[in-house]
Amino acid sequence: MNESKDFLRVIVEEDLKKGKYSEVVTRFPPEPNGFPHIGHAKSIAINFGIARDYKGHCNLRMDDTNPTTEDTRYVEALKDAVEWLGFQWEGNVRYTSDYFPEIYEYAVQLVKMGKAYVDSLSEEEIREYRGTVMEPGRRSVYAERSVEENLDLLERMKEGEFKDGEHVLRAKIDMSAANMKMRDPLLYRIRHAHHYRTGDAWHIYPMYDFGHCLSDYIEGVSHSICTLEFENNRDIYDWVLETLGLSAPRPYQHEFARLGINYTVMSKRKLLELVNEKYVSGWDDPRMPTIAGLRRRGYTPESILNFCHQIGIAKANSMVDVAQLEFCIRDDLNTKVPRVMCVLDPLKVTIENYEGSEELDASYYPEDVPKEGSRKLPFSREIFIEREDFSENPPQGFFRLTLEQPVRLKHAYIITCKEVIKDGSGTITEIIATYHPESKSGSDTSGIKVKSAIQWVDARSAKTVEVRLYDRLYTCEAPEGVEDLNPDSLKVIKNALVEPALITEKPDVRFQFEREGYFYADPVDYSDEHPVFNKIVGLKDSWNKKIERIEASVDRISASVPRIKAKIVQIDGEVSPMSEAEQARFEKYTGELNLNNEVANTLTRDEKLSSFFEAGLADHNSPVTLANIVANEVARELKEKEASELKFTPAQIAELVKMLDDEIISNKIAKQVFEEMVQSGKNPAQIVEAQGLVQISNPSVIGPIIDEVIAKNPDNVEKYKAGNTKLFGFFVGQVLKATGGKANPQVVNDLVTQKLQ
Ligand code: ATP
Ligand code: MG
After folding, report:
1. Tell me: the pLDDT tens digits for 424-434?
2. Is 31 marked active-site?
3. Secondary structure (DSSP) of 566-579
4. Among 82, 258, 304, which is best to mutate for testing ligand 1, by the most ligand atoms less than 8 A from CB?
5. What CATH number does the domain containing 308 carry?
6. Which of 33, 35, 40 to mutate to test the pocket of ligand 1 (most atoms within 8 A of CB)?
7. Largest alpha-carbon pair distance within the chain?
8. Closest residue by CA, ligand 1 atom 26
């Protein structure tokens, strides 16, 4: 098993070692009131993953104690999601509603012990009597009821004699407990509603705090794993089981941080609103963060599990960048799917010196993908290319077809533009070109230099398809509601053109459309007569690209602009296969050195970068951090210069990395120091020293800064405490800003968590 175990696995192992349990039993306990989302995937991966790793078992339990919102279609969606992710629950699906009679008997037992009473205060009075964090609560006069009276009332509650809200059953614990949850928590409430499974049999339903621990006990669960917001409920969990004297082994509750992703909402209530108000086409709309949505979009189970693995399990809430999820699917598909050609916005090209037709051999996979297979690409006089791959007035750095600049048609020939034909309004309708017969891909003797290869389709044999381009559902990082929806999250292209093999051979259901991104044959709407493809994800993080473009236009005078442009163009250019030496290097980087594919690819393909990287590594063996700096920061410098022209050396960059690893400086400061190194060539330690950039990790320095941020933002504190946990990032951000980025983010995270409790 993995060396670095998460804290839950550490607990499980200790419990097994001590012999506390003979078998690990976990459960995934969703409420069937909506489709499961990516947050549930995390919980599924944890519960089923732990059971699998320790050879125990995991139950799938519908926590169905709320009759008004639950439905069997959600039960089905939950079962689907667990199975699709590759897990299997033990035995039948369990339902808390199956335990209603048993749970009720436990309630009767508590009443008989004098540990529970029927209260008849109104909801508002109950709240008022509970007191505040500063003041103890007071107990209701009804707490004095005799056992007989309580038993009688509870029975009559069950039989439906009273109206909703007239009475509740409460545990008799402690109205002045420091933990407010322990101030006589509610165990049962009256609900006259039809339950999707038990029908009208029950008029009272157990509260979560009572039903959950008992369901765990009934099922023999050992580790009851839930999210952090239940931390304070743990005392009730233990109280119920202990007071009832339920014998060991009994379950214990452990909490982990729930998953939050930026640009996403994760509450089922908000997702339900999107579905009900038709902002999306359904629970499985490919823009939804539901498992059904991700699945229909084209995500693979592997990519989602890998994402859950990467984000890890922690005890502090944090916000994960949606780009990380996107990275995981790209990373998965990169090594699996065929490359094919699609033109989204076709522009006709007539090749005037080409006669007849031919079929070109084209491999489905690039050389670095260990898969075999190829198809025939029909080629003739009339083809279509992407409209934006031609420019009459090319901006600087435009590498594709222009009036002066030839371009390669991927897998085919080099063409040169001869003439541009326009309609009355000045729109280009056609390009007349010539091809170079001796430039055929694989046997090119033309000697013509081109700067990129573009995708194309043969006009006669191309198939028309519908392509659905998805973008993020929300425009802002911490969306509150529908007001933050991205109006451009779906763009439908009805008349895109694809090469015929895609439809006739169907080499797969997922593809890379060359230079466009990864696509998936829509599992619902696709037919051979009307093929439909969903865009899963672009080839690169387009949101970053957009930001770079904005930066580029705002910051015209900055010397970095041409570099940024170069980076964008490079993304659009053709990627050539790796040589054998490069391949070996790539394998070493991704294997032994544990670099991610993207970084490894960047370094591998650039001799200057890989030499720089390896020289630095000899001084300080921290491959991942070093590689990131070399692939990003150093790469920018080496784009225009030779290594010998740089003012800094690999050894100095290694020193910078070491300071990062030792947490002397933060990532942000490292970037700042790097900029200074570029200019002055000074040693990083010298720069940090001279400018007082040392990272602040001391809680007694950071604490007061957090207090100030909290004091200045009472509204956000209130919203956060009311449940808008996405604001966590706001507080952390403010503190980092106040310290000029010098505060140690981990320490800030921990302290903010503490202080906002
Ligand atoms: P929501 O707030 O979206 O309605 P929930 O917690 O009410 O979520 P449940 O169906 O009760 O949803 O959750 C089932 C299990 O999944 C619980 O154990 C819960 O802790 C876990 N879970 C729900 N959301 C997340 C999340 N974002 N990250 C991790 N686990 C989650
Ligand atoms: Mg819930």
Report:
1. 999 999 999 99
2. yes
3. HHHHHHHSPPPPPP
4. 258
5. 1.10.1160.10
6. 40
7. 102
8. 39
Q: Residue holding tokens 């489905």? A: 364
CATH code assigned at 396: 2.40.240.10
Q: Where are the alpha helices (DSSP H) in 467-539?
A: 501-504
Tell me which residue of 391, 392, 387, 384 sits closest to 345, measured CA to CA: 387
End-to-end CA distance of the chain: 35
User: Ligand 1 centre from 229 Cα, in Å?
Assistant: 10
Q: Does a structural domain hold residue 399?
A: yes
Tokens matching residue 106: 């436990």
Task: Report yes or no on 22 lying in a domain.
Answer: no
- CA 389 to mean position of chain CA atoms: 32
Question: What residues make up the domain containing 584?
Answer: 567-691
| Residue 231 located in a structural domain | no
pLDDT per position as a tens digit, 263-285: 999 999 999 999 999 999 999 99
Same domain, 632 and 666: yes
Residues 347 and 420 in one domain: yes
Question: What's this model's pTM, rounded to 2 decimal places?
Answer: 0.74
Q: How many CA atoms are closer than 13 Å to the CA of 301, on its beta-carbon side?
A: 10
> Ligand 1, atom 13: nearest CA belongs to which residue?
30
- Ligand 1, CB cutoff 6 Å, lining residues: 29-31, 39-40, 42-43, 226-227, 258-259, 266-268
Least confident span in 263-267, 283-287, 330-334, 657-661: 657-661
Helix, strand, or coil here: 683?
coil
361 and 454 co-located in one domain: yes
Does residue 307 sit in the same domain as residue 365? Answer: no
Asked whether the CA dihedral 183, 187, 191, 195 is positive or negative, the reply is positive
Closest by alpha carbon to 499, among 458, 454, 533? 458
Q: By C-alpha distance, which of 561, 518, 507 is closest to 327?
A: 518
Same domain, 377 and 267: no
Which phi and psi (to 5°) does residue 679 adopt? -75, -50
Signed CA dihedral, 443, 445, 449, 454: sign only: negative
Q: Which helix (H) or strand (E) holds 383?
A: strand 382-386
Residue 7 included in any domain: no
Q: To the nearest 5 percent, what fractions of the chain are helix, strand and coil?
A: 45, 20, 40
Q: How far is the CA of 267 from the centre of ligand 2 (A)?
A: 9
Mean pLDDT over 470-481 rounds to 93
Residue 249: cis peptide before it, omega within 30 degrees of 0: yes
DSSP sequence for 12-55: HHHHHHHTS-SS-EEEE---SSS--BHHHHHHHHHHHHHHHHTT
Q: Domain check: are 644 and 722 in the same one?
A: no
**Nearest-atom index, ligand 1, CA of 43:** 30
Q: Which ligand is nearest to the CA of 62?
A: 1
CA distance 482 to 495: 30
Same domain for 684 and 588 = yes
CB crowding 417-455: b at 16 or more within 10 Å, else e: beeeeeeeeeeeeebebbbbeebbbeeeeeeeebbbbbb
Of 284-298, 538-552, 639-653, which one has max mean pLDDT?
A: 284-298
For 345, which DSSP code? S
Question: Which among 304, 227, 307, 299 has a CA at the least distance from the CA of 267?
Answer: 227
- For residue 241, how far is its CA from the centre of ligand 2 (angstroms)? 21
Query: Number of structural domains, the chain?
Result: 5
Q: What is the pLDDT of residues 29-78, one digit of tens each?
A: 999 999 999 999 999 999 999 999 999 999 999 999 999 999 999 999 99
CA 35 to chain centre: 17
**Which tokens in the block code for residue 688?**
């940090």
Is residue 585 part of the annotated active site? The answer reads no
Q: What angle do CA 270, 272, 277 make, to 5 degrees?
A: 100
667 in the same domain as 624 = yes
Contact 715, 642 (CB under 8 A): no
Q: Supply the residue whose CA is at minimum distance from atom 10 of ligand 1.
A: 30
Contact 460, 382 (CB under 8 A): yes
